[in-house]
Design goal:
178 residues, alpha/beta, Rossmann fold, 3-stranded antiparallel sheet, 3 helices, 22% helix, binds inosinic acid, binds magnesium ion, HGPRT, glycosyltransferase, Hypoxanthine phosphoribosyltransferase, metal-binding, cytoplasm
Length: 178
C-alpha cells in the first residue's frame, strides 16, 4: 500500500470477483441484442476493459469523455462533452460503463442525451455508487459496490490525474487533498 492511501476499501481480488459476476449478469441481459457499451473516459477504463472480457456476446464499444470535476474533489455541476461517441445510437441498446456515480449529474445528462438521439434503451453499470452524495434523481442499473461518502482512488479513479493505476480501490488520506 502506498503512503497516500488511508485504507484499502476494495481489494484487487474483490474487484475481480465482482466484475466477473456483473459481466455474467450483463451477458444474460444483453444476449442477442448487440449492445453498444459506452465507456466514460478516463476513470472507467480499467472497469471497462475488464468487464468486456467477461461478456462473451456480440457487442460494440465506444467512448465519451466528459468533465465535471476539474481538479477538485467536488463537482462543478457543469457537464461538458470533451469527446463524443462516433456511432449512430438510433435504435441501439446503450450501456454506459462508469467508474462511480457520485452526485448523479453526469449520467443523468448522458442518459437524456442518448434518448434524445433515439436510442432504443439506455442503462448504466457503475462499479461504485455513493448514494449519500446524490443531488439529482438518478440510479445506475447494475452496481458493483455501495460505498460510503469518502473520496476514493485507484482502479481508474484519480485525484488530480494521479493514482489511476492502483490495482485496488483505496481511500485517499485527507492530507493529500487539503
Ligand atoms: P457525478 O456526476 O457527480 O456522479 O460524477 C461522477 C464522476 O465524478 C465520476 O465519473 C468520477 O470521475 C468522479 N468522482 C466522483 N467521486 C469520486 C471519487 O471518490 N474519486 C474519484 N473520482 C470521483
Ligand atoms: Mg469518471
Amino acid at each position: 500500500m502506498i503512503d497516500a492511501i488511508e485504507e484499502v476499501l476494495i481489494s484487487q481480488d474483490a474487484i475481480e470477483k465482482k466484475v466477473a459476476e456483473l459481466g455474467q449478469t450483463l451477458s444474460q441481459e444483453y444476449a442477442g441484442r448487440k449492445p453498444l457499451l459506452v465507456g466514460i473516459l478516463k476513470g472507467a477504463c480499467p472497469y471497462f476493459m475488464d468487464i468486456i472480457r467477461h461478456m462473451p456476446i456480440p457487442l460494440e464499444i465506444d467512448f465519451m469523455e466528459v468533465s465535471s470535476y476539474g481538479e477538485a474533489t467536488n463537482s462543478s455541476g457543469q457537464i461538458k462533452i470533451i469527446k463524443d461517441i462516433t456511432k449512430d445510437v438510433k435504435g441501439r441498446d446503450i450501456l454506459f460503463v462508469e467508474d462511480i456515480i457520485d452526485t448523479g449529474q453526469t449520467l443523468k445528462e448522458l442518459h437524456a442525451l442518448m434518448l434524445k438521439r433515439h436510442a432504443a434503451s439506455v442503462k448504466t453499470t457503475a462499479l461504485l455508487n455513493k448514494q449519500d452524495r446524490r443531488i439529482v434523481d438518478f440510479q445506475a442499473d447494475y452496481v458493483g459496490f455501495e460505498i460510503p461518502n469518502a473520496f476514493v482512488v485507484g482502479y481508474g479513479m484519480d485525484f488530480n490525474e494521479q493514482y489511476r493505476n492502483l490495482p485496488y480501490i483505496g481511500v485517499l488520506k485527507p492530507k493529500c487533498y487539503q
